[in-house]
Amino acid sequence: MTDAGIPTVDVRDVPSPIPDDVVVLDVREDNEWQAGHIDGAVHIPLGDLPARVGDLDPEVRTLVVCHVGGRSARATQWLQAQGIDASNVEGGMAAWEQAGRPIVA
C-alpha cells in the first residue's frame, strides 16, 4: 500500500503467465500498447475506462499497469471506488522491463 492508500504490487509479484483469477489491465494509449505489453493483459486506455468499466469482472483481482505508475494509480483508485478489487503495478511497464519480465508486441 502506498502513502496515498492505493494498493500496489511489485512487478516481480505479478504472475506470468497470467492466471484466470487475475486480470492485468493496461491503461496506456494505443501506441504504447502496440510497442509492447504484458502477454494476456487487457487493454483499456485510461480515457476509455469509465465507458468500459463493465468489461471488467468485479470478482476478479485486477492489476493495473501504465508506463511508470501514475495513470495506473489514478485508475486503481477509481476502480476501487467502483467496487473493483484493483492494485497498481508499481513502476509500470518501465519497472516490468527493467526486471526482465517478458513483453509482446
UniProtKB/TrEMBL annotation:
Protein name: Rhodanese-like domain-containing protein
Any Pfam family: Rhodanese
Gene3D superfamilies in the record: Rhodanese-like domain
CDD domains: RHOD
Native source organism of the sequence: Aeromicrobium yanjiei
InterPro entries to which the protein is assigned, alphabetical: GlpE_sulfurtransferase (IPR050229), Rhodanese-like_dom (IPR001763), Rhodanese-like_dom_sf (IPR036873)
Entry superkingdom: Bacteria
